[in-house]
Design brief:
Strand content: under 5%
Shape: elongated
Distance between the termini: 52 Å
Low-confidence stretches: none
Number of helices: 6
Radius of gyration: 16 Å
Helix content: over 70%
């Protein structure tokens, strides 16, 4: 039961971060975001909520799986979890910078840092649990796309 509880705790934490990020985004999606010039590859707005929900679920499960290895490898689990928490905080910070403060340039700098932290989290998770590491690959791919999109939006609106 403790193993399931750990996964549920991390999963719920990720979903709460996602929910709060959605709340920050909500007003800007209808008022500010439509005023921006966007690249041709910009996805429709409706795609973001389901994609992020799936990614937060995968992150939560991965984090819980790594936490479940605490008894076997406490030092590496703590290190990996530190990166996980930092990248989750940076994930939320990006939303604030882009959608609340309307700052595509600062959010671009931040998303580069976020990508690096996600990659390091993936690397650390993979050492502890290969499946947990693989669960972060779609997240890394989506943030790679988001980084290009963010950079394009900044460039087109500077």
């Amino acid at each position: 039961m403790q193993k399931i509880l750990r996964i549920v705790v991390v999963l719920m934490t990720c979903l709460v971060v996602g929910y709060l990020s959605g709340m920050v985004t909500r007003d800007s999606i209808t008022a500010w975001y439509p005023t921006l010039v966007k690249p041709s590859f910009n996805p429709p707005n409706w795609i973001f909520a389901p994609v992020w929900t799936i990614l937060y679920i995968m992150m939560g499960v991965a984090g819980g799986m790594v936490w479940n290895r605490i008894e076997q490898d406490a030092e590496n689990v703590k290190k990996a979890f530190m990166f996980f928490i930092i990248q989750l905080a940076l994930n939320a910070t990006w939303t604030l910078l882009f959608f609340y403060f309307h700052n595509p340039f600062l959010s671009l700098i931040e998303i580069i840092l976020l990508w690096l932290l996600i990659f390091e989290t993936y690397t650390q998770f993979k050492k502890i649990d290969k499946v947990a590491g693989m669960l972060l690959v779609p997240y890394l791919a989506w943030v790679s796309f988001a980084m290009v999109l963010n950079g394009s939006i900044w460039w087109l609106n500077r």
